[in-house]
Amino acid sequence: MAEVIGERDGILREELLSFRHFVVETHSLIQKEKNRKFYFCRLPYQNVSHIKEYAGYIRDRFESFVVIGIGGSSLGARMLFESLTETNHNLKKKPKIFFLENVDPEKFKSVLEQIDIKNTCFNVVTKSGSTVETIANFSVILSMLKKELGDNYRENLVFTTDPEKGFLRKLGNQEKIKMFDVPPLVGGRFSVLSPVGLLPAAVAGIDIEELLAGAKKMDLVCSIEEHVEHNPAYLIALSHYIANMRRGKTISVMMPYSEKLSSFVDWYRQLWAESLGKDGLGQTPVKAIGTVDQHSQIQLYREGIRDKIITFLHIEKSDVDYKIPEELPEDISYLSGHSLHEILSKELLGTKAALIKSKVPNITISIDRISSYNIGMLIYLYELATGFSGYLYKINPFDQPAVEEGKNFTYALMGREGYQEKLEEFKELYKEKYKIEVQ
Amino acid sequence: MAEVIGERDGILREELLSFRHFVVETHSLIQKEKNRKFYFCRLPYQNVSHIKEYAGYIRDRFESFVVIGIGGSSLGARMLFESLTETNHNLKKKPKIFFLENVDPEKFKSVLEQIDIKNTCFNVVTKSGSTVETIANFSVILSMLKKELGDNYRENLVFTTDPEKGFLRKLGNQEKIKMFDVPPLVGGRFSVLSPVGLLPAAVAGIDIEELLAGAKKMDLVCSIEEHVEHNPAYLIALSHYIANMRRGKTISVMMPYSEKLSSFVDWYRQLWAESLGKDGLGQTPVKAIGTVDQHSQIQLYREGIRDKIITFLHIEKSDVDYKIPEELPEDISYLSGHSLHEILSKELLGTKAALIKSKVPNITISIDRISSYNIGMLIYLYELATGFSGYLYKINPFDQPAVEEGKNFTYALMGREGYQEKLEEFKELYKEKYKIEVQ
């Protein structure tokens, strides 16, 4: 706030309050949209018994489980897996969980090497049913499965896709493959609390009811509280908006002091960038990890361009910890008796103080520990903050019009029928200048 | 260039050429500084036989090898390991390689669970000899080693530190522990081609002579060519500088179309941010991975704020590849017969065309394949581009003055002697506003 870091970089309380009427009005619009554009707000209330049941079957029957999906079809599930399962899950527990996202053959190989395809369940996830990377990876896997298992290949597949439309749904109907629905009103990046995220989470042994309970709790808090100073989602949205549009903070850094939350930031990056990056507006989300990036990015954050607002994620308690020995040489005796988690927490405080001194605006979100309930709260918090930000920027946070163009050029380059004109356009546009070759 | 995307966002050839005299002058300054500030330019010419020899001993003697270091003491080594060893190295080869960077206890546990401490060599890397995270992790490991091995614990340690100064050197001398030197004239983020990066690389089985041969080649090219249009390092530096200072491109995105180069970007992020982020200047480096981030960030890159210049890294050939089957349903028949690597490459082209259409300036660096020689070239290329950029921005690219403050607050919070005043300052500065609690 301005009272801490000054008015040039900090936000004034009066500014927040000046949006009072806007917030109240938007709050009521959101409540009305919960069965339409804001349908993701309904997800915490769904019945998940069929998901749990099928996940139980997969857990009993298979040694490995591979999500084939990309973007909104995998980031949420991966975030849940990496934050909520035990360290080294795949070394200790069955089924092992993998994500096949990219069409990078090295990545493909690395997954193949770790699974026995006959004992692996593949969850193909694409809302449209036709995402290039997902279908490409799936096609290769499918031919391998058929070769290994003949007609029984079906049992090793689960599709998560639109309930009616698209290639994958059609194929699933034809071949009688087990399918889960992506709710039509929920876009990929808002779908983690649908079967897209919940099925892989349940297979990984995560308590998905607790996850939804946390989301419900946050929904309750944010539905009741229409005052920006008491509604955490609106406060996050509005402070980022003011920081961006009135203080030039065009970059939103999210910096958890926890390696396990690394992919929470990947999930947030898509949510924030794809929802708000349009009409020449929106912040660029940037991932940093504490303390690692203190040794890489803090120089820039303190003394570079003053274009950042930083959100720290702090875990108050760690389920596991290690104590530094009591007897240490004098040079390092200040470490004696502290624990690793204590040092991590104090480094966060030290870094915050240094940023405050440099007048860098920052927000801290503390959770007592990494639990399904708390992650559920965080998911809902950021989804709602993103949806609310759409009203602030006066843009539609639920579309992604600029993503199509690159796909169309790719189709053209692959010789897909009907894309001849696009190929001509490509040749017009694409020019290489300054080609320097070094042998 | 402006002729492709227009003058508002693109660079004019005349602009590049207007720096001609500056470039020639700086080129000659750099040649003179190669034994001083630009000492990293000498590293490709060092004799590495003692590193190879000791690495050979470690490879024979130990099952695992853990680098304990953070920032410049680990990012380079991790980049070499992740880009240049075989996929799933740790599942197939000995010694397994790990990096203990953060003081996150979960991370610490995850490494401990995968090693047998008696059969593990720990490489403690810190130039100053006193980096908090490194010393904290090392202290815990040291007491475990002593417990397991008694006086023989020494054999499981190698220090890489300043040849004369610091706590670690002192301890190493006292306890007669094997040590390698960080050249005093080379800062952490420029040290990957010193024993900091080379020892772990050699232990991982990487051909470090090839790595240096690539760096030498790039040194040769860039030493001979003082014309900006033919010197790849100067062209990268100058085009980023013009994009930043004259076109408002405050963000430099690096986007490899290869998962293996993910940590090359982590290494670049530190180099670019910590070297140039000072005096209110410098770009914010951002990591993106193709194709994954097409489904997360491309919406923003095309239609968000016009503040980005993008560097693509393209791998022309893949050592491994998978072919999509010939017979596919009609809806997806355009994929038939293509390979995963082909799709990856075409997606890169499609994305580039879409960005060109949106007038986003971009650079592509193509390497024929991921090899030690090529990575050596890239390392030297970016180190020199960064050093050269220091002259453009008129800042010292080799210091990091803003990093100390956070450390000092952390020391104060941990009760280190002599930091009482800092603790008072902390209490003055640190104020929490708008604390919202949700149970």
From TrEMBL, chains A, B:
Record EC number: 5.3.1.9
Free-text function comment from the UniProt entry: Catalyzes the reversible isomerization of glucose-6-phosphate to fructose-6-phosphate.
Keyword Isomerase included in the entry's annotation: yes
Enzyme class: isomerase
Location of the protein in the cell: Cytoplasm
Gene3D superfamilies: Glucose-6-phosphate isomerase like protein, domain 1 (3.40.50.10490)
Record pathway: Carbohydrate biosynthesis; gluconeogenesis; Carbohydrate degradation; glycolysis; D-glyceraldehyde 3-phosphate and glycerone phosphate from D-glucose: step 2/4
Family named by the database record: Belongs to the GPI family.
Gene of this entry: pgi
An MF annotation (GO) of this entry: isomerase activity
PROSITE patterns: P_GLUCOSE_ISOMERASE_2 (PS00174), P_GLUCOSE_ISOMERASE_3 (PS51463)
Domain of life assignment: Bacteria
Name this polypeptide is given: Glucose-6-phosphate isomerase
Keywords: Cytoplasm, Gluconeogenesis, Glycolysis, Isomerase
InterPro entries: G6P_Isomerase, Phosphoglucose_isomerase_CS, SIS_dom_sf, SIS_PGI_1, SIS_PGI_2
Catalyzed reactions: alpha-D-glucose 6-phosphate = beta-D-fructose 6-phosphate
Pfam families: PGI (PF00342)
Active-site feature positions: E274, H295, K407
